[in-house]
Amino acid sequence: MTLTQAKQICLSHVRYVLDGKQNNYTPEQIGEAIQIIADKSKSQILYDYNKWRRGDLEEYPNNSAFNMKILKESVNLC
């Protein structure tokens, strides 16, 4: 997956979480895209968010607005 594709998928995920706008991406595609953005932005918050999404991390603040703000800001930094 390219960085451009990862950005597109992540922004689509943000719109889905915040506005309920459906997309055709699988949870696996979204996770891969978030991982690419986390790697590029070196965001520990995104690493942890992605671990939580995959069920690898139990303790994580489930604050959708905050998580999506961080994801959107990270996409814009890449």
Task: Write a structural description.
This protein is globular. It is mainly alpha-helical. It is built from four helices and no strands. The protein has helices at about 5-20, 25-40, 45-55, 65-75. The protein has one domain (about 5-75).
Provide a concise account of the structure shown.
With 78 residues, this protein is mainly α.
Number of strands: 0
Number of domains: 1
How much is the average pLDDT?
92
**Terminal CA distance:** 15 Å
Spans where pLDDT lies below 50 across 5 or more residues: none
Q: Report the structural category.
A: mainly alpha
Order of helices and strands: HHHH
Treating each run of at least 4 consecutive H or I residues as one helix, how many helices?
4
Shape: globular
Overall radius of gyration: 11 Å
Share of helix, binned: over 70%
SS strand fraction = under 5%
Largest sheet properties = none
SSE inventory with pairings:
Layout: H1 3-19, H2 27-41, H3 44-54, H4 64-77
Helix pairs in contact: 1-2, 1-4, 2-3, 2-4
